[in-house]
Each structure stands twice: as structure tokens, then as C-alpha cells.
What we know:
Helices cover 41% and strands 12% of the residues. By secondary structure, it is α/β, with parallel strands linked by helices. The relative contact order is 0.13.
Amino acid sequence: MTPRENLINLYKRTGFECAPVYFxxxxxxxxxxxxxxxxxxxxxxxxxxxxxVISDPGFxxxxxxxxxxxxxxxxxDKYYPTPLHPKARxxxxxxxxxxxxxxxxxxxxxxxxxxxxxxxxxxxxxxWPDFYQSDFSVFKPxxxxxxxxxxxxxxxxxxTIWEVAWYLRRMETLMTxxxxxxxxxxxxxxxxxxxxxxxxxxxxxxxxxILALGDDVGMQNSPMMDMELYRYWIKPRIxxxxxxxxxxxxxxxxxYHSCGFVKPFISDLIEAGIDVxxxxxxxxxxxxxxxHRDYGKHLSFNGTLGTxxxxxxxTPGQVKALTLKNLGIAGEKGGLLCCPTHMxxxxxxxxxxxxYMEGCLEFRSNFN
Length: 368
């Protein structure tokens, strides 16, 4: 099997040849990789990750791509009465990301451009990103190259609805308007959903294999919102985005990301049409054995190795043992891309990364 075929079979739980590896390194760990292995290849290529990740420009953390979206000039000061940090970056939605101290590393403080708007008309007149006039063909060569080299094409379209909405409006304000069924909340969610449906459709037309959606709806030990609120505002809109992609390609794999405790949402996410749940964060009362027992016949998984606990603080032997344990829970048919739940930060020892990869390799040997 090619890496692409192996990953798709694993996610479809139809059998697979090997346990693929995947992780995201912070800059300091990328530097450590280059010190150990050189800089002639990316770490993704060096370790033969099974998929090439293509970042949706609508993902609010990404840089604006001039080759994708039509240029627009706008005075953002209108939406930021308090001056922005001189090095603030404004994303495609107009959300400002301000740098913190050196200790913050890559983390930023977010500013909310719709926070002070009082009228629906003001929200309607906001300079929304024009994805309908954007050039999705710029991604075609990248997708074709991935397929030609035997890799899956994975589009990162996370922060799909809920997170973009509160990034724009501010969480407390938006939740209040949801409870009051304010017309501004309806407009905001519907606008973001329409734009997400269009992007999902265009990416599906380009032949991608995996569409990664997601919104953080879990906190460390509880849901972020009441389930009735979630089912009224969020679930039907996520289902609409999934249907938009699957109407173009019924075989597309839908991955859904939410940090935190999301057990109460899993049945709803399955009903909405997801195929893979990420990241199954163990520190948030997300025990993989229990979740796989309850949902493994209907759902595959990505993650399970905690970056709050296991990856930074376990011994290499413990990392390897947990990797083998979780792969064993999923079994020979697959259903788990076992990997760290989030970006690996500076405190993660390189030996633990190697131990994780050794666990995947050993599972391959045992399986074969």
C-alpha cells in the first residue's frame, strides 16, 4: 500500500499494513530536528508522514495568501478603538493577533473586531472575506503532487464555525446573544456557515482525501456549553458543512477536532457525519479504551498521546508502552492514527518523540 492507501484504510477500519506517525513540532523542536538530522528535508518528509497538510486560508491562525484572496484595503482601526500592538497580525477575518512576551513563544492575544458593534446593519457591512471570488485552484498542484507521491491530501479547515464566531464577537457577548436568540447571533453563525460550506465544497472538488473541521467545544473537565445550546446553534451548521463536502465526494473523510472533554458531544458528531475524532485528550477525562469501546464501531480516532502529561513528562519507555497499548486497543482493522494530541512544545524531550515512533514501528513488526 502507498501511505495514502494505508491511512485511508486505517481510518475506514478495513485493515492496514503499518502504523503511521504524525506530530507537529514547535520551532525549538524543529531546530532540534535539524541539529540531529540536517536541514535537507522537512521533518514531515524525513519521517514519512502519510498525509500532506494543506491549510485552508480561512483558518484564522494562517497568514493571508495574496494568491488566493482578492486584495482589499481597509482601515481596521474602525474596529479596534484601542490601538493594536505595532506587531499585531490581522488575519483574513480581520481578527487581530498580538504578540506577547518571549515566554509566550508562538501564543498570541486575540482581539475581537465585532466586539463593540451594536446593530445588525453594522455587522452586515463588515468587510467579510470574499471566498466566493477566491482562487481555490492555487491548491491543485499541491494536492496533485501529494497524490502523485502516494500521500493523502489533508486540508486543515478547523475553527470552522463556533471558534471563528467568538473570535470575531468575543465569547461572553456571543454566548449571551445565543441565550437571547439575538438576530446578530443568527446572522453571524449563518454567515460563517455559508462561507465554510463554500470552502468545503471547493476543496472537495479538488479531490482532497481528508477534510479536518473542528471547534473547541470542551473545557478541561466539562462541556463549554449546555448541550441544548450546542444542538440548536452549532450541530446543524457543522452538519451542513459536512453535507456540502460529502455531496461532492461521498468518500471524503471528515475529521473533527475539539480539545477538552467532549464525550457528551460524540453521538451528535457521529449524527452530523464525522468519521474521525481528534485529539481524544486523555487529561480531559477522555479515556481511549472507554471511548473506543463505546464508539469504535462508528468512528475512528486521531491522537490519544497527551501533550500535557505523557509527551513532556513520561519516560521514553512509558511513551512507547502507551503507543503500543492504544494501537492494540484499535486492533488489526485500524481506527487510530496514534499521535500526540497537540503541538509538541519546547519541554518535550526528543527521546520521547523517538520512543513514540519506535512504538509505531514495533507495532508494525508485531502486526506483520
